[in-house]
């Protein structure tokens, strides 16, 4: 009876729906409600930051993507929808700028490693030192 009750209930915020197999994350819930309430310009900034984070994550996890990015970054940036300051920073591999615009430092660091950026050069850039 308890199992049947738990299976029929969903978390009130709608972010998790239960099934017999497992709990599944859905785009509903507090995050989706936030997107509906946010101003359009805020939503665009959030989407752009999400796209940047997705690119950093994918470069970190996929050596083939990293190699393609090193060869020709423009189509990859277009594919991920990275625009504005983030696009310029990725083209220039300006990791300090990525930090300043709010990208996740973990993702930046491991993306830099995957892009074969020298660690000393990376740290010098972050600390604004001369190479």
UniProtKB/TrEMBL annotation:
Which Pfam families does the entry mention? LigA (PF07746)
Entry's InterPro entries? LigA_sf, Xdiol_dOase_LigA
Q: Where is the Extradiol ring-cleavage dioxygenase LigAB LigA subunit domain?
A: 52-128
Q: What is this protein called?
A: Extradiol ring-cleavage dioxygenase LigAB LigA subunit domain-containing protein
Originating species: Leucobacter triazinivorans
């Amino acid at each position: 009876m308890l199992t049947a009750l738990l299976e029929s209930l969903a978390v009130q915020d709608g972010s998790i729906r239960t099934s017999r197999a497992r709990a599944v994350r859905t785009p509903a819930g507090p995050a989706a409600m936030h997107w509906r309430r946010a101003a359009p310009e805020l939503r665009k900034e959030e989407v752009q930051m999400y796209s940047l984070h997705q690119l950093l994550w994918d470069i970190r996890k996929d050596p083939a993507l990293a190699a393609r990015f090193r060869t020709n970054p423009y189509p990859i940036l277009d594919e991920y929808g990275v625009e504005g300051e983030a696009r310029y920073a990725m083209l220039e591999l300006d990791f300090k700028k990525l930090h300043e615009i709010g990208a996740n430092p973990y993702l930046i660091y491991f993306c830099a490693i995957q892009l074969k950026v020298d660690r000393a050069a990376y740290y010098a850039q972050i600390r604004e030192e001369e190479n």
